[in-house]
Amino acid sequence: MHTEEERLAKARKRVTELKKFYKHFFAYIIVNLIFIGRRIYKDIYRGDTVIEAVTDITNYKFFFWWGVGLIIHAIIVFGAPRLVSKDWEAKKIEELMKK
To answer: How many structural domains is the chain composed of?
Structure first.
């Protein structure tokens, strides 16, 4: 059993991880909206139509690669630690013993 202090420390650590992810996510959205909007505006200014500017895939490269990093961050925060944690091992052992 975990003591109250251990549970509190674990909860605080989890909240800190979530906070960092949410800050990363909101920065991703805001910065990419600015950069993509700026690139689309420049394309239109140079003579492209709105459709050409919006569908130009090169305007989204930065968005894509940072998105890959964000997905990795999300997996670390929400997925991977749960799959390989001690709690997961204990639950899996218990599940297999019941069979």
So the answer is: 1
pLDDT tens by residue, 5-20? 888 898 899 899 999 9
Separation CA 51–CA 32 (nearest Å): 19
Scan for tokens 């052992």, then name that residue: 93
pTM recorded for the entire structure: 0.67
Give the C-alpha separation, 78 to 2, whole Å: 22
Q: Which residues contact 16 (CB under 8 A, 6 or more apart)?
A: none
Query: Per the structure block, which two tokens stand in for 72?
Result: 């990795």
How many residues would you count in the chain?
A: 99
Token digits for 64?
């894509």
Domain that holds residue 67: 4-98
Helix (H) or strand (E) holding 47: none
